[in-house]
Design a protein that fits this description.
Elements (H helix, E strand, L loop, with lengths): L2 H22 L3 E8 L9 E4 L4 E4 L5 E6 L4 E6 L2 E7 L9 E4 L23 H18 L11 H16 L13 H10 L5 H6 L8 H9 L13 H24 L1
Parallel strand pairs: 1-7
Antiparallel strand pairs: 1-4, 2-3, 2-5, 5-6
Helix pairs in contact: 2-3, 3-6
C-alpha cells in the first residue's frame, strides 16, 4: 500500500468518525429526584427548554427526561422557587438530586378601605344549591338518571349538571376573555400537539368523554390567551389540573 493510499484511507476513516460523532452525543435519559427541606416534591414541572421536552415528578418525587450536554432544564412548582440546571456529562452518571426552595408567604401591608368586598364562598349554600339543582334536573330528565349497562349516561348527567352550576359562577372580569367549548374543540381539531392522542396519553381522558371534558374545561375559566402557542406549557398545566378534577368526579360517581 502506497503512502498516498494510506493517507486517503486515514482521511476517510477520520471523516466517518467526525460524521458519526454527533450521534454519540444524542439525547440520553436523566433520572432524578426533586425534594425540598421537608419531603420529596410530587407534581413538580420539569422542562428541557433547549429541546422543548416536558415532564412531571411522580408521587415519590422521581422523574426522567431526555437531554444532552449543554441543555438547560427548568424545575418549578406552585409552592417552590424556580430552579434552572445546566446539563453536564456527570448529570448522566447517577441519579440527579434537585432541591427546591419553598416559597414563604409574606403578608404585605394592607390598606383598609370602605369599598365593598366580594361575598365569601359559602360551602353550605353552594351544596344546598347543587342539591336543589340535582333534584330539579332529576324531575325534568328522569331518563338520564336511570341505570345503564355502561354507566355513561348517568355520569354524563351528573358531571354536566356540576358543569352548569359552576358555569354560572364563572368570574367576569373586564378585558379578560375565557375559552369557550367551541374554541377548545377547534384547538383539539387543528393543533398538532393538543389532539386526541394528548387527551388519552397525557390526560387519561377516554375518547367517549372528550366532549364532556371540554365542556367541563369551559366552566373552569381558562383564559383565551392560554390558547396562544406562546403559552403552550401554561395550557398543559391547566389541562392537567382540569383532567385530574374531572376524573375524580367521574370516579367518585362510579364508586357511588
Amino acid at each position: 500500500m502506497t503512502l498516498t493510499n494510506y493517507l486517503y484511507i486515514l482521511n476517510k476513516i477520520t471523516f466517518i468518525i467526525l460524521l458519526l460523532l454527533p450521534f454519540s452525543v444524542l439525547s440520553q435519559s436523566i433520572k432524578g429526584k426533586v425534594y425540598d427541606d421537608a419531603a420529596t416534591v410530587n407534581g413538580a414541572k420539569i422542562v428541557n427548554i433547549t429541546q422543548q421536552i416536558l415532564t412531571y415528578t411522580n408521587d415519590k418525587g422521581d422523574f426522567q427526561i431526555d437531554a444532552t450536554v449543554g441543555d438547560s432544564i427548568v424545575f418549578s412548582s406552585l409552592f417552590h422557587f424556580e430552579k434552572t440546571i445546566k446539563v453536564t456529562k456527570s448529570s448522566f452518571d447517577d441519579v440527579m438530586v434537585v432541591e427546591l426552595k419553598k416559597i414563604v408567604n409574606e403578608l404585605d401591608e394592607v390598606e383598609l378601605t370602605n369599598e365593598p368586598t366580594e361575598k365569601p364562598f359559602d360551602p353550605v349554600v353552594a351544596n344546598e344549591t347543587l342539591q336543589t339543582q340535582i333534584q330539579n334536573d332529576i324531575k325534568a330528565n328522569p331518563h338520564l338518571y336511570s341505570k345503564s349497562p355502561s354507566g355513561n349516561a348517568d355520569i354524563i348527567a351528573i358531571v354536566g349538571l356540576i358543569a352548569k352550576l359552576f358555569k354560572s359562577k364563572k368570574p367576569k372580569k373586564e378585558a379578560i376573555t375565557y375559552a369557550t367549548y367551541q374554541q377548545l374543540q377547534n384547538l383539539f381539531s387543528t393543533n398538532s400537539y393538543f389532539n386526541d392522542t394528548f387527551l388519552k396519553r397525557d390526560l387519561n381522558i377516554p375518547a367517549e368523554y372528550k366532549n364532556l371534558f371540554l365542556e367541563y374545561c369551559e366552566t373552569q375559566a381558562i383564559e383565551t390567551k392560554l390558547l396562544s402557542p406562546d403559552n403552550r406549557f401554561m395550557l398543559v398545566d391547566t389541562l392537567v389540573k382540569c383532567s385530574n378534577d374531572f376524573l375524580e368526579i367521574v370516579n367518585n360517581h362510579k364508586k357511588d
